[in-house]
Design brief:
The chain is mainly α. Helices cover about 65% and strands about 10% of the residues. It has helices spanning about 5-15, 15-30, 35-40, 45-55, 85-90, 95, 100-145, 150-160, 165-175, 180-190; strands at about 30, 60-65, 70-75, 165, 195, 200-205. A three-stranded antiparallel beta sheet has the order 1-3-2. It is elongated.
Length: about 210
């Protein structure tokens, strides 16, 4: 059982909505950074920061595949239990007897419940959307053979499809050496798939632009 500072650190981590979303996603299966970013619609930098914090607290671990991508997974699961009875005992009796306060409290709880129901519906819709995205990615890999020649090219295009990024951010995001990334980006630029503005790269709005 966790106590003291350990509990405080865990509550700090779980107090962030996006870290809770990442934990919920990793309960389903291990994911790499790009996948978490795409599925939760978070920037790669934010995902990396959240993962690093949870890794330091031994909540997450990772393993690398042959393409040097890190797949993150929960090293241990947990549940938090709150003794509501003991909390109730500390509430002054005059408050418990005040029906106005109780009524407002019940109304707020109902509002929260409605929001949680709406969130559940959104998550269900998001799961359908994620399946569509996965399908389109598989179609891209099949239809673009000969144009996108490597896994690095595919992952790079998918990363830039969501965000403009500089080469330093791409190197950290994809965990590919900067020199290799630069060469791949130059090749994609020559093909008219990627364009550069200053230090930022992005997918061209129109092929051949």
């Amino acid at each position: 059982m966790l106590e003291g500072d350990d509990v405080s650190r865990l509550l700090d981590i779980l107090g962030n909505k996006n870290r809770r979303r990442i934990i919920q996603l990793l309960r389903q299966k291990p994911c790499f950074v790009t996948e978490i970013s795409d599925r939760l619609m978070l920037s790669p930098k934010a995902v990396i920061e959240h993962l690093s914090m949870m890794e330091r607290e031994d909540i997450l671990e990772f393993r690398s595949d042959i393409n040097r991508r890190k797949y993150y997974y929960l090293s241990k699961d947990f549940r938090i239990m709150i003794d509501l009875e003991s909390v109730r005992a500390k509430i002054p009796s005059e408050i418990l007897q005040n029906t106005d306060i109780i009524g407002r409290t019940v109304d707020k709880i109902k509002s929260i419940q409605e929001l949680m129901d709406s969130r559940a519906n959104l998550i269900s819709d998001l799961e359908y959307l994620e399946r569509d995205i996965d399908k389109k990615i598989r179609e891209l890999k099949v239809s673009c053979k000969g144009l996108l020649d490597s896994e690095t090219e595919v992952n790079l295009v998918l990363a830039l499809a969501s965000y403009e990024m500089d080469i330093v951010s791409l190197e950290e995001f994809l965990e590919v050496p900067g020199k290799e990334l630069f060469d791949v980006l130059e090749g994609l630029t020559a093909k008219g798939i990627v364009e550069r503005t200053g230090n930022l790269y992005r997918v061209c709005e129109l092929y051949g632009k």
